[in-house]
Amino acid sequence: MSTGRTDAWRLAGLAACFALLTAPALTREEAEEPAPAPVRPNFLIVILDDIGFTDLGAYGSEMRTPHFDAEAQRGVMFSSFHAGPTCAPTRAMLMTGVDSHLTGVPTLEHLMLPEQLGQPGHEGELNTRVATIAEQLSGAGYVSLITGKWHLGRSPTSLPAGRGFARSFILDSSGADNWEHRPYLPHYTRAEWWEDDAPAHELPEDFYSSAFIVDKMIDYLGDLEPDQPFLSIVSFQANHIPLQAPREYVERYDGVYDDGWEALAERRHAAAAALGLIPEDAPPPLLPGSLRRWSGLSPREQAHSAMSRQVAAGMLEAADHHYGRLAEWLRETGRYDDTVVIILSDNGPEYNNPSRSRAFLGWLALQGYSRDPARLGERGTYAWIGPEWAAASSSPLSLFKFHAAEGGVRVPLIISGPGVTARGIAPAFTFVTDIAPTLSDLAGAAPMDGREPFTGRSLTPLLTGEAERIYAPQDAIGLEMSGQSALYRGDYKLTRNMAPYGDGQWRLFNLAGDPGETRDLAGSRPDLFASMREAYGAYEQRMGVLPVPADFDAQGRIDAMGWRAFFENNALALILTGLTLLAAALAAGYLAMKRRRRRIWR
Q: Which one is predicted more confidently, 349 or 358?
């Protein structure tokens, strides 16, 4: 070392010693004072309903979602995030971080078989053996709030008010009208809205679901102290049936869908590949032969179908707009930069085509709903997209809601905010049970004693960029809902899809190169197939999965219940209608007979 550099080090050492000698001595109290606690982030979970893998702009959609896309740009968007095949099981897992079969809500209430109902884990509502994330975070000083769809029970122990939420305004039905306080299916006699622990008998005159639940959340957040850490859950009805949206949003998509669902599916597939969400050479999915071809529709049918799709686009854009209002309010109040934002869908796109059910069409007529394309989306109208458009929303994946195919369970997930490194796409496999452990981890919350432990894992290493995956290649993650089943291990997926668009057969796919599930490897990889079947059996045993019959048809069961509910709930109206028609027929017959007699006597 040179003499000059040695002298410099000596001078630096003398200066440091002088600073230590002249510094004021710490008192005993100051010396023992703990370091400041780290700032706890707020959490905002945005739940979208029935949104397909490529329905958001950031995932390659033509639909305008600039506010959701902005969160993707400042955070992480996941390309292999998985939920349940339908809403209630997904929401149970999201709220608890526990497999749905341990929560009491392993399937929809309409699909619970009599021999299953009441069995452990099959109570039909969120049971008390699991803790909600709101209950978990309360121990860390958080206040939890929720507005929008809940669908996990309406008893005192299953409503949000009894599960750790300080304020709530929720819908406990699977859906409802977006403009009025009325149900959307003949299965229900009323729309089950609740504020805290009491039924909400009135909704505002200017009610529109996406606007209202954001307004309500802003009201609840406005009542908190500025430095109060919070968990806020905003659960939109977009895009669950009935599809409804303000006309100005619908008209923004004039002409966009006139070339049909096959063209849209191709565009979405190409966009997903260009973004890196799937491999560039990934083959398109093999869709059921029962799906219609766009060219087979008459021009009138095409125009009506394209307008229904426009309503879906307008409904999602409206939800994005109202989320943007909430984000702006958080900015104006200084909370946005301290808030972790999580945006996800509860399952793949809704495929149901209610027009094939005469009972449902009869119920629509009794309710006074219109299908007029000139008004579709407005108050008093009822729209849906059907399986063909749903397949396009899932593209490049296979099938849609109610099925264990990737299009039914692989959905968008975006996470942004403090502690999240903006790193674009995260391709690692993740599951809906991972959300609650992530929030608990970021908040420093301790697990609740005596409750089921998380079955998911924290996503924090993926959010910070410290790891590329949270599940090892040998880890097996299962899911099941009324026979719709899957097991993921590394790049491989074992799956069984039931009716209406599955055949109940087990298949094996390598999702790394075949996310559309086109090449069944069960025959060429018999050892792997057997190993994964064994792992799935172990999952069923571990979680207490109760089987359904081999020919179980969930949609058929729901349709049958709809028929029964239609006749039970509308018996008086149907009797009066029948008597009116009979009286009209008798009167017409009597008049015809009198005319014949006059002609004879003449």
A: 349
